[in-house]
Amino acid sequence: MMLTRFLFEKIDRAGWIFLVLLGLAAVLVPVLNLAVPPGSAFHVSNTAVGLWGKYMTYALLALAVDLVWGYCGILSLGHGAFFALGGYAMGMYLMRQIGPRGVYSHPTLPDFMVFLNWKELPFTWWGFSSFPYAMLMVGLVPGILAFVFGWFAFRSRVTGVYLSIITQALTYALMLAFFRNDMGFGGNNGLTDFKDILGFNIQSQTTRAVLFSLSVLALMAGYLVARAIVTSKAGKILIAVRDAEARTRFLGYRVENYKLFVWTVSAVMAGIAGALYVPQVGIINPSEFSPANSIETIVWVAVGGRGTLVGAALGAGVVNFAKSWFTGAFPQGWLFALGGLFVFVTLFLPKGIVGTFTEWWRTRAAKREPPASAAAEQPAQ
Amino acid sequence: MNDPIQRPLLVIAALIAALAGLLAPASAQDNAALVQRFATENFGEIANAVNALATSGSERASPVIEALRDSRLVYRQGDRAVFIRQADGSFADAATGAAADAGATRPVRLNNNVRRAIEAAMGALTLMHPDARRRAAAAEAVFKSRDAGALAALTQAIGQERDTRVKRLMEEARAAIVVADASAPDADRITAIGVIQRRGDQDALAMLGSLPANTTASVREAAETATATIRRSLAFWEAGQNVWYGLSLGSVLLLAAIGLAITFGVMGVINMAHGEMVMIGAYTTFVVQQAIRAIAPGLMDASLFIALPMAFLVAGAIGVAIERLIIRHLYGRALETLLATWGVSLILQQAVRSWFGPTNREVTTPSWMSGSFEIGNLAITANRLAIIVFAGLVFAALLMFLKRTPFGLQTRAVTQNRRMAGAMGIRTNWVDALTFGLGSGIAGLAGVALSQIDNVSPNLGQGYIIDSFMVVVFGGVGNLWGTLVGAMTLGIANKFLEPYAGAVLGKILLLVFIILFIQKRPRGLFALKGRAVE
Question: Which residues of A touch B494 (CB under 8 A)?
Answer without folding.
Answer: none
